[in-house]
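Dissemination and training. As part of the outreach component of the grant, students in the summer workshop were shown how a complex can be specified as a set of sequence lines and then modelled as a single object. The example used during the hands-on session is reproduced here so that future cohorts can follow it. Participants entered these lines:
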Amino acid sequence: MSTTTTASGTLNVGVATRETKVKRTDTATHWQLMWWKFRNHKMALLGGSILAIMVILSLLAEFVGPYTPQERTSQYAQGRPMGFHFIDAENSFHLRPFVYARVAKRNRVTLRMETTVDKTEMWPISFFVRADKYKMWGLFKSDLHLFGLENNRHFLHLLGTDQLGRDMFSRLLYATRTSLSIGAIGVGLAFLLGITLGGIAGYFGGMVDSVIMRLIEFIRSIPTLPLWLALAAALPREWTALQVYLSITAILALIGWTHLARRVRGKLLALREEEFVLAARLSGCSHARIVTRHMLPSFMSYMIVDLTISFPYIIMAETALSFLGLGMREPIVSWGVLLYSAQNIRSMVLMPWLLIPGLVVIIAVIAFNFLGDGMRDAADPYTK
Amino acid sequence: MEPLIKIRDLDVIFPIGKSGFFGKPTAYLQAVSGISLDIHKRETLGLVGESGSGKTTLGRAILHLEKPTRGKVEFHLDDEYVDLEDLNTKGLRKIWRHMQMVFQDPYASLNPRMTVREIIAEPLVVNRIGNKNGILEKVEKVAEMCGLQRDQLGRYPHAFSGGQRQRIAIARALALMPQFIVSDEPVSALDVSIQAQILNLFKDLQNKLGLTYLFIAHDLATVAHVCDRVAVMYLGQIVELTETERIFYSPKHPYTEALMSAIPDIDPDRKMKPVLSSGELPNPANPPSGCRFHTRCRYMEPYCREAQPELNEIMAGHFVACHRAESLTLQGAVE
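and obtained this result:
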């Protein structure tokens, strides 16, 4: 506790303590204190930055990715990641990065198409090129891409291509958008359900509380994976991609709200007896004001921490479902959908780059955990 | 003179322990049982007793922060008595303009997310008393009365020490200019060096504003310093009630005697003869039969187990609930 204005003070009762120096923390709001504390947590900052980059890149997927997710480069199917270079074979430096040309040839023995790197020819990478047409967020049309090749007979696949010759880098961007948005919407829905039902249980107590708690215990007692499988399998096959996407999100949220509801209830039950809440009642505050002005703010920070931590669970659940072929389906791409194509041993051996989405999942989950860790420390800024 | 507050046969019963699918209470705890009490205008009535004796619950029940299970609390307002039982939530909010409370823990009673100015202003804002400037002016006036400086009002509670936080809490309670304040152990969470300042602040404010206090405490020195009358509570009941001096000089209840004997003496040479009551405070959920104190009483007679003593007025203004009150000669804290 910062006790700048302590005891040395009032010898004459009723006479104020003289205090000239005002510390910055004295007039800082709760959120400021939290930010100052969060700032000191370097790993959390790192996690937060990684996630911010992921979010920005995936939001701009159409612009950042050189291809659309369904576009094929048939002459480079199952192609390896293409590294970009600044220094060529003759050791001369190029300011503009380039990739070496690829030449496709059919192998006479295996009869498979094979590509070889042709180090004599360079394909320079250009920025802000006009290439494939797309509709940004389904709203406005454009064909501007952050980077690409001017010559449309050449191709650029930084993370390789899949069996059908689709660009993994672009697909990964779209998948990140899908998976993160499922996390966000799922967590949002779970939050709404949790805070409403938990809030009702905690504020009113008694019979309502008992009924809601028994319901939560029932839901939690069902093994999650079989439940998801059953619910996901029950979705009609003829539904559109968007419908499937929304219902999968809802299914994940339906499971996720229970622990949030318990937390909200527990917090409210404890807060109801807090002295500052009693004081607010005595001051004549209405129920609405007590809840919104006094109770919610004092546990909102904890809720945000909870949300951050439950984010990766929802993302992993979606990934698991899609990986099993019961979640998202083409043409939607999510991390799980991408990993679904890396399921068999053949593609793992021949095309290890198909596992890159798995790496991204790991990075995202770890980043979320670091972020949540830092936020948990910052949630109570009054302890030193 | 008519008392400011009349309390009649007040019971507060809590359900405890839950069993079954929907949690029916298995037992009941009678935190306050059958208390009748008058609080006079402009007096400071002390309420002492061990932890768990029901002091805080009684204080909250008087304000109806805790709904009493049975009994009545009547508040004298504009020449008539208002029965708090008859009031709905709105009515209570209105009567709370005249009855306020200062809580025990100044670290828990101030919302950490509001500045001191907002905290003190809140009762005025929600009761719509005056316009914005009027409210700010009032806040500064009250804060100054409680020994806070104007330039401190923009700070958050975490910038203050315990004593100053308690000043803030007092200022909030005073903002509506109430007549009656329940102070629930307002100094027990503070350093001893700060306690006297806060107690004196309470006295000053009483003199200036003509306040009536119910002063809950477990520290007898505090009580001796500020109270006009003292009620001693044991297991939810009042066992003795009289003027402060009499409680200290000539207690009439064995439990009061035990409390007095526990006051430490400054003189190291003086032999202390604590009249210790043996044993712990019995479980309030299952109080002893008859006189509730009989399990720990030195002067216990067989009939004490059977019949519950009434709170009788044995002398003018001296109430005792003991079968043997008339016959015993007990020892006070000060000879």
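Confidence is low (pLDDT under 50) at residues 1-20 of chain A. Students were then asked to discuss how this feature might be tested experimentally.
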